[in-house]
């Protein structure tokens, strides 16, 4: 059977791409393949700690493909500001307008998959496994483990950081490790407010993301051994260390003294999970007949909460170009249809990876660099145009086209609260 | 009179020296200006015919005269059309045939022949960038018009004979920018709009929408414009 586009990986990025292409109704058939079965609707009362923050652009994208309203309202927790501060000095940044949303990964995937199954011209094969690809003139033959054979003009690799598509198409990847891994869990706090917090500690950044009710999600980046230790200690001791990390006064007060107050954590409500981090970039994001999106193309440190959002920008850029190509009958798998996406994606991904590297380097912890870092923080905070540039960069406005080809009208802006 | 007309219609309009140029043309080279121009051509056709949606050319029988490497043919097939692509240059037909993806094979038929050799009539006949390459364009336009059903559309595109077209379409495109293979065009074969309309009317075609096009070289994107002193595209209706 022939599909215009065949997406390998129905995770958050792959399922979103499928929705955007299907929404355009410019394609005769789209296929999405995943090794895992279609996820069930989430029913948990306590939020799942595997979650992401969404930027305004990513949220607008979900509205443009009709998946935002498929998520139960309670599970779309918004925050209206972001507070970033430092363990060492006093430089702090308050991003009053940096709003966003915190959602469970599974809520996003479930909504996308539900939407996908509503389109008559979308074929979902899950669970199913790809055996191999063979490239022929103008198309790719895809063989599944069960012997089924499919053909397509374009294979999209949305199969995560260990991407089989990337490997099978012989695209290399450059990888380096971070000195951190991620420890995640959900907690309850006193006096919860819809603010996202991030504090840079000596061992790495810790983020506190507001969920529904009194819940916060914790994403604590720290050296692997330290993560292992924190995973094993009794809950009471963990809460104590957590509060210490968030509330211990900063070491020096220079140049001006401001101390941000984070909420007090009272209870840990889920298991603690740890995830390895890697900085990885595929050597090419596209080649003839193949495009990589999301974690298959690039992964970064989650400190800025951007990993998935960069995947959404990929989806927006690629879907837009593929729709424009489809309108004029262009081959979706030819390099001519894919190169623009690769150039754009490369740009914001390199930018973010570089920006994070810069911050990590700042935290290598020697001498006077603290003063410099704190001065930088204060500087960004105190120069409005610089700050808004910074915010626009973090909001994603610069990286995607202003109009998206799969909708005739762009969804209006929406702000939480 | 009628018999001369019949003979004319059997006449070959192929220029052998032109055939040589197209035998080695790199049709699918991604930096060829024909690709962004094809975006414009397809959009022009869709707009003139009032088509949109996923398979706008579904249920349409289309003839692409002088299809070359199949740039337009393949796209129309992808957009749902049933297309016959013909070209007098065998090498071009080979390129087109080799490039055709399997899933489009039952939508497309390529033939190495001239327009006079084609049987039957079509809902839509296209001869894009061919007029400026044939001998006796008057005969050619008549032969093309013959293949359209009454009331059907004939799309013709060509290059205007102006000083601008000399500078841009030949000198700059071939020698400076390298986006058209050298020797592809000769200026005296270009056709002015008055001459063009006359050719159409003599062939029982009613020229309607006429638009110019322009290539933004830096972004490598082509646009439809109201300036026709370079290349232009025209949709004609075949009168009964
Ligand atoms: C601790 C942590 C915290 C994070 N926090 C944030 C945050 O706050 N904000 C943010 O934006 N991002 C965050 N991220 C990053 C974010 O989770 C990822 O970028 C995102 O999940 C990538 O989505 P994806 O669809 O590209 O890949 P994945 O989510 O990995 O999905 C891949 C899919 O492909 C399927 N698959 C795999 N192999 C195959 C195969 N061979 N055949 C078929 N299917 C296959 C899998 O089953 C899966 O469904 C965080 C990451 C970590 C580790």
UniProtKB/TrEMBL annotation, chain A:
Cofactor dependency: FAD
Span of domain FAD-binding: 3-327
The entry's keywords: FAD, Flavoprotein, Monooxygenase, Oxidoreductase
InterPro entries the record matches: FAD-bd, FAD/NAD-bd_sf, UbiH/COQ6, UbiH/COQ6_monooxygenase
Gene3D superfamilies in the record: FAD/NAD(P)-binding domain (3.50.50.60)
Glycoprotein keyword on record: no
Pfam families assigned to the protein according to its UniProt record, in alphabetical order: FAD_binding_3
GO molecular function: FAD binding; monooxygenase activity; oxidoreductase activity, acting on paired donors, with incorporation or reduction of molecular oxygen
Cellular-component GO terms for this entry: mitochondrion
GO BP, sorted A to Z: ubiquinone biosynthetic process
Family of the protein in this entry: Belongs to the UbiH/COQ6 family.
Name recorded for this polypeptide: FAD-binding domain-containing protein
UniProtKB/TrEMBL annotation, chain B:
Organism domain of life: Eukaryota
UniProt name for this protein: 3-demethylubiquinol 3-O-methyltransferase
Record bears the keyword Transferase: yes
Single GO MF descriptor: polyprenyldihydroxybenzoate methyltransferase activity
Keywords (A to Z) from UniProt: Methyltransferase, S-adenosyl-L-methionine, Transferase, Ubiquinone biosynthesis
CC terms in the record's Gene Ontology section: mitochondrion
Signal peptide span: none
CDD domains named among the record's database cross-references: AdoMet_MTases (cd02440)
GO BP annotation list: methylation
């Amino acid at each position: 059977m022939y599909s215009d586009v065949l997406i390998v990986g129905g995770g958050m990025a792959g399922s979103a791409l499928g929705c955007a292409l299907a929404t355009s109704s410019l394609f005769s058939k789209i296929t999405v393949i995943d090794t895992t079965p279609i996820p069930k609707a989430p029913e948990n009362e306590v939020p799942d700690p595997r979650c992401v923050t969404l930027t305004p652009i990513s949220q607008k994208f979900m509205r443009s493909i009709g998946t935002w309203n498929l998520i139960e309202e309670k599970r779309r927790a918004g925050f209206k500001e972001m507070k970033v501060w430092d363990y060492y000095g006093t430089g702090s940044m308050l991003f009053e307008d940096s709003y966003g949303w915190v959602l469970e990964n599974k809520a996003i995937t479930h909504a996308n998959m539900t939407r996908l199954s509503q389109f008559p011209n979308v074929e979902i094969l899950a669970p199913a496994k790809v055996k191999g690809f063979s490239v022929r003139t103008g198309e790719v033959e895809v063989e599944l483990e069960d012997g089924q054979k499919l053909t397509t003009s374009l294979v999209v690799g949305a199969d995560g950081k260990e991407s089989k598509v990337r490997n099978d198409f012989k695209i290399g990847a450059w990888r380096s490790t971070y000195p951190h891994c991620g420890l995640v869990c959900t907690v309850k706090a006193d006096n919860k407010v819809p603010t996202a917090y991030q504090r840079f500690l000596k061992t790495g950044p810790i983020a506190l993301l507001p969920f529904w009710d009194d819940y916060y999600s914790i994403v604590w980046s720290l050296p692997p051994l330290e993560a292992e230790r924190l995973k094993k200690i009794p809950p009471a001791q963990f809460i104590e260390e957590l509060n210490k990390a968030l509330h211990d006064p900063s070491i020096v007060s220079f140049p001006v003294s401001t101390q941000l107050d984070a909420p007090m954590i009272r209870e840990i409500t889920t298991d603690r999970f740890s995830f390895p981090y890697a900085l990885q970039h595929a050597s090419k994001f596209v080649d003839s007949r193949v495009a990589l999106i999301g974690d298959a193309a690039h992964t970064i440190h989650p400190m800025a909460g951007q990993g998935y959002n960069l995947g959404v920008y990929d989806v927006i850029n690629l879907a837009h170009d593929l729709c424009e190509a489809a309108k004029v009958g262009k081959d979706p798998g030819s390099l001519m249809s894919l190169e623009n996406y690769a150039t754009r994606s490369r740009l914001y991904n390199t930018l973010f990876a570089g920006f994070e590297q810069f911050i990590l380097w700042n935290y290598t912890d020697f001498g006077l660099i603290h003063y410099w870092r704190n001065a930088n923080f204060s500087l960004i905070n105190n120069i409005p145009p610089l700050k808004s540039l910074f915010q626009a960069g973090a909001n994603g406005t610069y990286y995607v086209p202003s109009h998206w080809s799969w909708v005739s009208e762009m969804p209006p802006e929406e702000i939480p609260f | 009179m009628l018999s001369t007309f019949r003979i004319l219609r059997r006449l070959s309009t192929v220029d052998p020296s032109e055939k040589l140029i197209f035998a080695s043309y790199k049709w699918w080279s991604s930096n060829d200006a024909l690709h962004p121009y094809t975006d414009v051509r397809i959009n022009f056709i869709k707009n003139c015919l009032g088509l949109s949606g996923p398979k706008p050319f579904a249920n349409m029988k289309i003839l692409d005269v002088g299809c070359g490497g199949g740039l337009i043919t393949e796209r129309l097939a992808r957009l749902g059309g049933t297309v016959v692509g013909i070209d007098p240059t065998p090498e071009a037909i080979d390129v087109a045939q080799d490039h055709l993806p399997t899933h489009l094979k039952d939508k497309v038929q390529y033939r190495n022949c001239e327009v006079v050799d084609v049987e039957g009539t079509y809902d839509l006949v296209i001869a894009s960038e061919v007029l400026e390459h044939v001998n006796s364009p008057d005969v050619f336009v008549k032969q093309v018009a013959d293949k359209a059903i009454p009331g059907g559309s004939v799309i013709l595109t060509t290059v205007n004979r102006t000083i601008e077209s000399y500078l841009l379409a030949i000198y700059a495109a071939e020698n400076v920018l390298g986006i058209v293979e050298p020797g592809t065009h000769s200026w005296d074969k270009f056709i002015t709009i008055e001459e063009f309309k006359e050719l159409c009317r003599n062939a029982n075609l009613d020229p309607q929408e006429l638009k110019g096009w322009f290539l933004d070289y830096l972004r490598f994107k082509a646009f439809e414009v109201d300036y026709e002193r370079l290349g232009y595209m025209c949709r004609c209706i075949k009168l009964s």
